[in-house]
Amino acid sequence: MNQIGTLQRAGDTRWGSHLKSITSLVNMFSATCTVLINIIDNGTTYSQRGDADAAYEAMTSYEFVFILHLMKELMEITNDLCQALQCQSQDIINAMNLVSSTKALIQELRDDGWDSLLTKVNSFCEARNIDILDMNARYVARRGRARHQQDDFTIKHYYMIDIFYAAIDSQLQELNSRFSDQTTELLILGSALDPREVNKSFRIDDICQLVDKFYPQDFEDHEKIDQEFQPYDDDDELLPSGGVGVTIGEEMVEEQNLTHGREMADERERIANLLMSG
Fold first, then answer.
1. Neighbours of 7 (CB within 10 A)
2. Helices 114-127 and 92-112 meet at what angle, rounded to 10?
């Protein structure tokens, strides 16, 4: 059993451990099969030998290898996102960008990944003397279900539609239900209210969009944040040309900036409260 001692334990259920488990099983597939054969031949009890035999039969089936490689492909795509969502200090914009890129990569796998996956699976099976299926042959259900099989379709249909597309569509559906386009946009725009990085994240345009798209009924027209709420920069037209007037002008601009800053803070707090309550 020392040969498979580095296989990820089934009890490790944190995100990322599943990918490590699948990857280690792919890498140590032959060693694992060798251990199972040894148990089948030399197991101390009938039950132990029977369990090992059942496990070996399942592992060396084409279907098991296909699903193993498909799960590896999917988890490699989703791993970065899963890790990011566990990080409490994760930047919202970065996380939402990861959501978008993950969706795109999963869709790309669905559209263009079938042939490459099939090639990997067939190559893996060939190297380990596992029977490669004829995709054009009629599919017959295993484990006694054939007698109840109503549909007549090919093995390719089963693997492509019932496994490949079904698994990928399930992942996409899960991501879309948790992170719809509207939710993603709301989170990205709402990140402009982040109080931890006011100077960096306080984006006027995003706050305006946030109000217009998601909270138009909560603000009167004259209350809505606009470009006029931006703090004044040093503007030559506001400052006298020199002398004492410059000092007076600077004080006026500073007072205007303080006023606008307070208005912006009030508006930001109001929108943040709407986000929290909505």
1. 16
2. 70
Find how far residue 180's CA is from the centre of its chain. 12
> Which one-letter DSSP state was computed for residue 128?
T
User: CA 250 to CA 261: how far, in whole Å?
Assistant: 16
Q: In this predicted model, what pLDDT tens digit does every residue of 6-53 receive, in sequence order?
A: 555 544 445 556 888 899 999 999 999 999 999 999 999 999 999 999
Least confident of 60-74, 169-183, 198-212, 255-269: 255-269
Residue 248 to residues 237, 239, 241, 256, 259, Cα–Cα distance (Å):
14, 8, 11, 12, 17
Dump the DSSP string for 9-56. Answer: PTT--STTHHHHHHHHHHHTHHHHHHHHHHHHHH-SSHHHHHHHHHHH
On the CB side of 270, CA atoms within 13 Å amount to: 16
pLDDT at residue 57, as a whole number: 96
* 138: β partners: 154
Q: How far apart are CA 143 and CA 126, in angstroms?
A: 24
